[in-house]
Amino acid sequence: MSLIRWNPTRDLAWPSELLSFQREMNRLFDTFARTDEGASGLSMWTPAVDVAERNDDYEVRLELPGVRKEDVKITIENNVLTIRGEKKREENVNENDYRRIERSYGSFVRSFTLPVAVRADKIEAKAQDGILTVRLPKAEEARPKQIEVQVK
Amino acid sequence: MDRSHAVVIHRNGSQLPAHRPEAMPVVVTPVTDLYEAEREYVVRLDVPGATRETIRVEVQPARLHVSADVAVRTGADVTVQHREIVWNRFTRSFNLGPGIHLEGITAAIADGVLTVRIPKSEEVLPRNIAIQ
What we know:
The structure holds two protein chains of two kinds.
Chain A: H1 16-34, E1 36-37, E2 43-44, E3 49-53, E4 57-63, E5 72-77, E6 80-87, E7 98-101, E8 106-113, E9 124-128, E10 131-137
Antiparallel strand pairs in A: 1-2, 3-4, 4-10, 5-6, 6-8, 9-10
Chain B: E1 7-9, E2 15-17, E3 27-28, E4 32-36, E5 40-46, E6 55-60, E7 63-69, E8 79-83, E9 89-95, E10 106-110, E11 113-119
Parallel strand pairs in B: 3-9
Antiparallel strand pairs in B: 1-2, 4-5, 5-11, 6-7, 7-9, 10-11
């Protein structure tokens, strides 16, 4: 099972009103379609993520609203960064009292293969306002260097 | 590679500028849960990146309106490898029916989740009738 995330900027050539309507409809459907029964029977969802590369490090940002720090696990192995966790429902609410459920909950996992070696011991992660930011410093030999070439 | 502007590289190879001009907010609708408790309605919206300072909750006689601007990451020294978070504004409106105590509406935000509590008005609250 692999869920391909729909890319909202693909249709940038369209007029902006049509684009935003289409984007909104697709996003609403995407939100419902993403919730899926995982192999373990727990519902699964896919958080949105940005990956940015800078000279000295990578920055990975995930939208994890309502996910507690204790419920997130970040691991790195062979230059593959894996972020997994669980978003829990409020416990004291009876299922029958819900009038509308749109938010996803349950387990999530996202993995990234980093093209460049990173210093695993210096990885930092911060959770703020529902956004998890992971900073991965690049290994010394992987940083871009200016090499002077003498022209003879 | 030219690093003077951020590019978005998709798996199919297309390249788009990641920087969006300020005049063009990208608006999305935050997903919402709503449940009914004995004395109030509780509305929960996912607004990751919004804070107490950036979120606005407006109450009108028949409408509740929530909006928040969130920061989109760009930077001169950044090459964006993968971007999915393209929106920078959350907006949603809810119609409020009768049986609601408007002045008692409260809102709190934590970890990117906004919780709005809408108390029911006195007339619709269940009352116990004492048996003589």
